[in-house]
Design goal:
Number of helices: 3
Shape: globular
Oligomer: single chain
Number of domains: 2
Helix content: 10-25%
Distance between the termini: 32 Å
Number of strands: 16
Structural class: alpha+beta
Order of helices and strands: EEHEEEEEEEEHEEEHEEE
Largest sheet: 6 strands, antiparallel
């Protein structure tokens, strides 16, 4: 990490801002579409390097669509605690996600809690599209940021790595689901925050552990939060 001295994060450095949402369905590949819709609704959030937007949990419906649950559908943003107020303008907004309308409610804010095992539905690393090479690249990334852990690429029912294809700016990007185990509390919080910082106040610099976090990639949660590991 040339030119940046990483600072470890406190448990309250980042928060999850969880908007209840109403709607019926979404495109299955919706990470970039959600970011684009949020950028249109709240232009001040566009291009913020600290903004992470989780993929929305839903049920497969075929034909490139997923169905939103009747209750507890949620859009989750992960942001520095000092910036959570910047997201509040999204309350009550109607968003068009690839032709699918949704409406956001008033969010709940929660702090991140450490867990020994974390899971990300999709992680992307440029130029790494094959399982074994990707696994090694994830390990190097964690080493780069001083995170000690055991890394796993979960497999599907056929025993294959869970390979994910996401569309960003009209281009297909290859990623994989990733599980990370045996984390210390501090490393768990850093990985969930997804960023490290240096500097103070106006001189703060952010550096993401993994890329495309505003489009649903590289976002880790305690494995218990994802019983189905979609």
């Amino acid at each position: 990490m040339t030119g940046i001295s990483t600072a470890r994060l406190t448990p309250y450095s980042f928060v999850s801002v969880n908007f209840p949402l109403g709607g019926k369905q979404l495109p299955a590949d919706h990470g970039y579409l959600v970011y684009a819709a949020i950028s249109r609704a709240s232009p001040h959030l566009h291009g913020k390097d600290w903004l992470a937007i989780e993929l929305i949990s839903a049920l497969p419906a075929g034909r490139g669509r997923v169905l939103l649950p009747d209750r507890d559908a949620t859009l989750c943003l992960r942001v520095p605690a000092k910036h959570y107020r910047d997201t509040l303008q999204l309350s009550g907004k109607r968003l068009d996600i690839g032709g699918c309308p949704i409406r956001l409610g008033v969010p709940l804010v929660r702090t991140l809690e450490p867990a020994q095992s974390l899971y990300a539905r999709v992680v992307t690393i440029k130029n790494f599209t094959e399982g074994e090479a990707f696994l090694d690249a994830v390990k190097r990334k964690l080493d780069q940021f001083g995170i000690k852990a055991r890394v796993e690429l979960p497999r599907d029912e056929q025993g294959r790595y869970r390979r994910r294809i996401v569309t960003i700016h009209g281009k297909s990007v290859v990623g994989f689901s990733v599980a990370v185990h045996d984390l210390s509390d501090e490393d768990s919080l850093v990985l969930q925050a997804g960023m490290v910082i240096s500097g103070e106040d106006d001189s703060i610099q952010w550096q993401a552990l993994f890329s495309r976090r505003a489009m649903g990639c590289g976002i880790f949660n305690p494995i218990a939060s994802y019983p189905g590991k979609q």
